[in-house]
Structure formats: C-alpha cells, structure tokens
Write a structure and sequence with these properties.
Four copies of one chain form a homotetramer. With 285 residues, chain A is of the alpha/beta class. Chain A is 38% helix and 17% strand. In chain A, the strands form two sheets. Chain A has a six-stranded parallel beta sheet, sandwiched between helices.
Chain lengths: 285, 285, 285, 285
C-alpha cells in the first residue's frame, strides 16, 4: 500500500459513506463525490466528480456500480453521474475498485484498471454476518413470539447458514439446519444442532430461513413443515419457496435481499474497504 | 386444576389474545370479552362481558389491569368496561387473576378473590426473554453496524442482564457486563464475559444496555464510555442515564419499556397463562 | 494496600504455590515456607517459618488450614508445623488470612488478627469454574461416548449448576437442569436448556451431575432416570445419591470433591489471592 | 438395506464392540469374533471366525484393519487372525467393510467386495467431535489452570478446528483460530473468535492446539507465542511443532493421535456403524 494514499469514493449509499469514513480513520485521504443530497456525511466533505477523480490515487465505486447501465448508482447525488463523462477523466493506471459490474455494458469501463471486490470469497464470508443479523431482525419484528424457545429451520449450511444457525442457537432457539451432504449433516450435529436432509424435511417449524436458491419449499413441503411458519427467504429471486402455494396456505413468505446494506451499512462499508485493502495487498498496487 | 375448566379473558391487548388462544389449546373453555374491534382474534369468538363473567370459572384481567383507575385496560373494546358494573357481576368465590393493580383504586376489586400474576418471581424471570429480545431488536434496528463484533455493555446482572448478555454473546458481540457485587463479577467472568464494576466503568462501548433503575450514566460516565454509543435504557423511568447530558453530547438514548408485549405478544401471553396456572396449582383452586 | 507489601505463604499444596507465584508477579515480596519437599516451586525460594513470619507483612494459610487441628496442612513441609510454636511468632497486628478454619481448635489462632477468605461469596462463585471443569474432565474420562450429543442432567441451579450447564451446552451436550423454584426453571429455559423439577425428574440421562447436598437420587429416581447413567456427585458427603442402591443397579457414582485444587491448582491459587486482596481492600489493611 | 440382516464384526478394539452393540440395538444380527480376551463384551457373545464369516451377511473389520499386514488388528483375540486363512472363507459377494487398509498388502483382500468406511468425508466430519473432546480432556488434565479464561490458539480451521474452537469458546476460553485463507479468517471472526494468520501468529497463548500437518510452530514462532504454553499436537506425525526446539525451551508438546478410539470408543464405534450404513444405502447393498 505504498503507492495508494487516497481514495475517491464515487456514489453509492450509506455503505460507501461508512467505507469512506473508515478509510479516512485509517489515515487515507478521502474524496467523496455524489453525496450532495446526503444530510449527514459523517464529517466528510462532499466534492465534485472532477476533483475526486483527479486527486485520488484510486477510486471506489458502489455495489452495484450501476442500476441502469449508464449512470453510477448514486442515490445521494445532485445529478446523474454518467459513465461516459467519467471514463474520460480516469487515468489508465488509476486503480478502480467496483462491485458486481455485471449490469454494466462491457465498454463502460473498458481500458481501465478495474478490480471487482464483490466477487471475492472473503467478501461473501464477511457479509454473512450482516445478512444473518438482518434476517434475525426481520424474524424478531415479524414473529409474534420470541426466537428463544422457538423451533427454527435454516435451509442450507453454507456461509450464511453457518453464521445464522450459530446466532440463533446463541439466542436460545431450538435450531435445525438442513443440508444435502452427509459431511455437512455431521458438522451440523457437531455444532449442537438438529440435522435435517434438505430433500426430506420432517420437522414442523415456527420460522424457516431459506438460504438455497432452488425450489425447496414446494407446496407439499410447505404443508408438512411450515403450515404455521413464517418463511424468511434469503435466496436471490425467485427464492426457494412456492410463493403462490404459500399464499393459498396463508403462510407468510418474506423475501429479504441485500440485507447487509439495509441492516448494517457501517459493517457493510467496512467490509468493502477491507476487500479493497486485500486487493491492493495481493496485487501489490 | 380440578375446579377451573374455563377462563373469561376480559380486555387487554394481543398478549391476552395469545393467552386465551393458548389456554384454549390446552383444552380450557375460553370466553373472550373486550375484543370487538380486534380484526384477528386467532379463531376465538368475542363475546359480551356478561356472558364471559357468568360462564367462566375464573377471570383473567390484563397487564396493567387499568390505565385510568375506572375502566379495564381494553384497547380493542367497543366501549369502556367499567369496574363498577363489572364488580357486581363477579361472584365472590370466582377467582380473578390480574396484573399490576397498583393504579387501581383500593375498592375497585375489593371483596373479590383476586390474585396478582405479575408480582410473581417466575413471571419476571420468564419475561426477561422477550425483554432481552426486544432490546436486541431495537439495537439491530438503530445501530448502523452489526452487533456481532461490536463492543456492548450491559449494566446490571439481574434476570434481564443474565439473559441479554448470553444472547448478545451468542450473536458474537464482545460483551461486558457491569455489576456491583464481587460475586456477580465472578459469575460474569465465569460466563466468558468481561466484568466491569458499575461504579467505575472503564471501557468504551458501541452500545450500552442499562437494566438498573438508578442514575449510572451521569454526564461524566457518558463522556468517558459512551461518547459514540447508542444507549438503550430498559429501566423504568426516569431510567439510568442523564438524558439532558446525553442530548448535549449527541448520544442517542432510547427508553425501551414494556418490551414483552411489544416485541413478543405471543410469548408474553403464554407467560401470563403459565403464571395463572402456577397460582391455581399453588392455591389449589 | 498501602501497608502490606509482602506475604508469608505458610504451607499448603500447589494452590498456595500458585497463589505465591501470582502475588510475586503482582510485585509483592513473597516468603514461602513449608515447601521443602516440593520439587518445583515455580522459581520461588522456600524459607523457614521463622524468616517468613518475621519478614512478611501478612500471612496466608492454606485451605483447609489444618487437617488434624494441631499442625498446618502442609504436605510439602519437611517437618510438621505446629500451631503452638507458630502462634508465638505471629505479631498481634499481623494480618492472617486463612480458609475453612472450622476444624481448628478455638484457641489455635485466638488473639490474632485473622480473616477467612474461603467463606466469602465471590470465592465460592469464582471456584465454580474450576469445579465445573474438574467435573467435565471426570465425565470425559469416565464416559465411553462424547459429551457432545449426550443427554446430561445437572441437579441444582446454584453457582456451580449455572457454570457447569453453560459449559456443557457449549460443548454440544443436550442439557437439562433441575431446580425447585419456578423462577429458576424459567431462567434455565431462558438459557436455552431443558428444565426439570428436582422433585420429579422425568428424563433419562447418560450423565448426571449432582450439586445439591440432599438425597435427590433415591433408588426410585435412580431406576427411572439413571439406569444407564454415570453419576458425578459434586455435593459434600454423603452426597445426593443412594450409593447402595446405585451399586445394586450397577450405576457408577463418582464422588468428586475438592475439585478446584485437583483440576486447576493455578486458577484455585489465584482465586485465593484475589479473595485476600478483596479482604485487604474492604478492611483497609 | 434389504439384503443385509447381520454383521460379522471381526477383531478390533472397544470401538468395534460398541459398533456391534449399536448394530444389535438397531435389530441386526451380530456375530462377534476376535474378542475372546475381552472381559466385558457389552452383552454380546464372542464366537469363532468360522461361525462369524459363514453366518453374517456382511463383515466389518476394524480401523486400522491391520498393524502388521498379515493379521487382523485384534488386540482382544485369543490367537492371531491371519488374512490368508480368512480370505478363503469370505464369499466373493459378501460385502466387507474396512478402514484405512493402506498398510495391508495389495492381495490380502483382493477379489473381495471391499468398501472403505474411513476415507469417507462424513466419517472424518463425525470424528471431529471425539477428536475435539479428546484434545480438551488432555488440555484439562495437563494444564494447571482452567480453560475458562485462558488464551488458547487453534491452528487450522478445518473440521477439527471448527468443532474444537466452538467447544473451547463454549467452555469460556478466549479463543483465537489461525487460518491462511481470507475467507476462513472472516468465518472465524463471524463465529465470535479472534482470527490470526497462520503464517504470522502474533498473540501469546496458554494452550495451543495444532491441527495442521506442516511445520507451523518452528523455533521462532514457539519463542514468540508459546514460551509458556502447552502445545497439543493433533496432526499426524511428525506434527506441526519443532519438538527439539520446544524441548530446549521447556515447552511441553503432547502428540495426541487416534483420539476418537481413546477418548470416546462408544461414539467412535457408532460413527463406524453409521458410515457402514451410509455405504449400504449408497451402494444399494
């Protein structure tokens, strides 16, 4: 990190603001742009795009970088930030860190020195924490009883399943986790929880958290294990439940997506910063 | 419980509804009154006061039983339920269970066979769970980071402090608990948490939960340990923080009271039911 | 602690050695006596009684202070340390800290400025930790399966019950705790464990830990809930089980007493030191 | 499992005995052979090899199947069980389950229908539990203090690292875990523990558990982080520590291998049985 002493934070929501704040606290120069309509910028000064791009050693774009493919995702910006104009200002060797740039046209950032922070494994692992807490907050808000003492099922024992199950057990819920691999079923039991096979869920639950992007909760499974349950679906759309069947059975299904930014923007912003730092170290920028 | 086969649930909020539902699920006859304006009565039929009092073997009143001293606390009732009229209908040997009847004039229920469920020790212990979860839900909602990894302090190691600290540790927070007795300080450490003496709090915290009804967080203590903190005050008013000093320092203090009914009415209702059952068993009613 | 700058540690087992070591690490002068036959004195020099008593500002005696009423409990001493001779050397205003001096004749230390550290509440609380770990070590050693996944019962929810149940749950056992008070039953459930009433234990267990000094495990209860169980009895003799009935039923009962000194002499010694410090502070010595 | 109604358990230690007992409890016929010198066979009858092989639908051999390459590993057998004689009796289509048959000559079981249970992933996952408990029992036995409150490091966050760290945290230790992958470092933090990079361990510890079969604890690392530590090395020989350097520094290193069979033969036996069942189901035997 010898060559990068300052960051330009261009657009984004509160996550980018906390990312900027945290980088500034670490001693980096920070040039914030695209936050003109934000009331509280955590003590940082908003500047214009030109100043930010020209003065910063590297740029950090938000997650997702764009929602329309033409402008930067910048809900707090006074006016749209067009990639066309932006690209001309960015130097060829100026590192550009961005997240989830799939929706962006292939030439929007072509020729620039871009790095994706959101596809990194440790980024996903770190975000399991704000995702799990966001899911728990929703469950606490929606469920009429306490999580402590309730029967909960987590479908899937990946990163989110591991963190979420540990937290729910810590709160005092009776936790079951479903998985398909025998190895995972053993690790679930080893963690002091009840193991279910995802293909043949047998228990009945008060709350079901789905983390698997596949149709697990079909009408038959819903009828058997979820007839009185609240379903919180964390998998990307269409999610893991037959929503129409659930509606017929009066089972409430909540699609809870993009939780880190909503539930814990500060943590989510620091996770972005850490991923950027990791890229800088690995790439020796 | 040989002589009591049915309950009249008179007034109250959703807690009483869940109390009624749970008693009905246990096989008791249930006569619900004072829920005329409630849209979803969990499959139970609302009836009039007269029917409920005449047919039920015992009556359960809400918590608190009254807010004005003259009418039953019945937010869902079509019209006010006056104690004066009610008292004439209740038989002298008909058990009446009620909670927190301090605000009620001394003759409002005089001559009746009343039992207070809310002053019981196990009632307070059981309510520590929905109180702790309600506090955690507020913290998750208000705090911009995750509880996991944050530095939290719980002031007081009574029932709520014990449950709340265990849950927060289970979520992954770095938990400190303050107490005054050396014995409690040892038990805090034994539970794997950091112990602070309440009179001389030394750490700096992201979130502080106060459970002690005394001025602990005076301006000096706030400045030292809470300058960036969110304070969630669970102690009855005026609470444990110098609110004016906190405001001057831009420290957010949230007074979170009566959490069980707000955060988990189902659990709170079942706790009322269990306390009533315990009285029936102890008193051999 | 302005007036006490050195301690004489007179007799005792490894606990006293660790107590001495820890006090020396805190900066106190330490005069060790009665450890002539101890091979490893943790870098401390053993001296004679006369030197220790004459030079130390205060004296610390072991737990128990005596086993025969006439000599100090000093298993590592070259020769018996008689209270008669000792008493003449101790100054009237020289603080003497000792533990469990019940077995000592009433005049053995009469006229001296004695303080008992072992009767203090925080001393008992702190010792719950080495006691619980000692009990777990025995269970791991004796039980042919893993504690993780086994059904364990802890009888009693006092200090030891609280710490032991938390640890066993942390290891992954299915933990039930029995108590008599309704309040405790609620706190047990709040901690995510199964609650049993001590007077009517209903489950069947792999391992039972008793902490209550009363006959709980009579032959009928043993037959019902412990027929395949290992019983670890932590209560002082005669303990909480009908040993003869257990023998008839081939139920193994292990009386596990004085665990802190056996399982974790270092921790036990530091607990003695801390209790002495607390007395010094409270008494302003 | 339609075709297999009985098992022949040939040789092995207590694990095989518990495996046999558990299969018998599940309703299978069990023919035990090679346990003539075992005093307590858990109510099962020992028979001769001929009877066992001829009557059982399938055979289960121990782990490891042989220590010398010529005879079955059978410490309780009256006389050596030679593979040469054995092989003639076993039918070509009689399923043979065995573990870790690397040391066995390639023709010892050639031509037979063999299945290895010990190379299965869920077998390793399940054995993480008795391994972790065995390691904790050793630590409790060897360490003079309590694990609760001690600073422990687990090197490696694979199956054993995950289970062991969770248990140690549950007991109240201050747990650090080291790993190399950024993803694992995040998951360690998400589990409420301190993360260290294996290549640059910075803390100082009371107890270090190594699970990685590579030289991590070289003399420099030992000097820095383990000078007062107890090292429990769970990795296969030569383990992860420089034993000679440790000896020079008076650091105690304990090589703790094959823990499941030693610490929890019952659990280890049931894990063998479960792996055999899984093979039968997968292979449709």
């Amino acid at each position: 990190m010898l060559n990068i002493n300052s960051f330009g934070i261009i657009g984004g929501d509160k996550r980018q603001l906390f990312c900027a704040r945290s980088a500034a606290d670490d001693g980096f120069g920070v040039f914030l742009a695209g936050f003109g309509k934000c009331e509280n910028t955590l003590g940082l000064k908003n500047t214009d795009i030109k100043t930010a791009v020209e003065n910063a050693d590297a740029l950090i774009f938000p997650l997702p970088i764009s929602k329309d493919g033409e402008t930067v995702n910048a809900p707090f910006a006074d006016k749209p930030i067009l990639f066309g104009e932006l690209k001309e200002r960015i130097k060829k060797d100026q590192p550009v860190f961005c997240g989830m740039n799939g929706k962006l046209g292939s030439d929007a950032l072509s020729g620039l020195k871009t790095f994706c922070y959101s596809s990194r494994e440790e980024f996903a692992a770190a975000n399991a924490v704000p995702t799990a807490e966001g899911a728990i907050e929703i469950a606490m808000h929606e469920y009429a009883g306490t999580l402590s003492g309730s029967d909960v099922l987590i479908i899937g024992y990946g990163k989110i399943g591991r963190v979420l199950s540990m937290m729910l057990r810590g709160i005092g819920a009776r936790v079951s986790v479903s998985a398909r691999q025998l190895k995972d079923l053993e690790l679930i039991k080893a963690a002091g929880m009840n193991a279910e096979h995802t293909a043949r869920i047998r228990g009945r639950y008060d709350i079901i958290f789905n983390t698997v992007p596949a149709l697990i909760l079909d009408s038959r499974t819903l009828a058997k294990c979820a007839s009185d349950a609240l379903v919180i679906d964390l998998a990307s759309l269409p999610g893991g439940a037959d929503d129409k069947a659930a509606e017929r059975m009066s089972i409430k299904v909540i699609h809870a997506l993009s939780l880190p930014g909503k539930a814990a923007p500060k943590t989510a912003g620091i996770i972005i910063k850490n991923a950027v730092y990791n890229i800088i170290e690995e790439e020796d920028l």
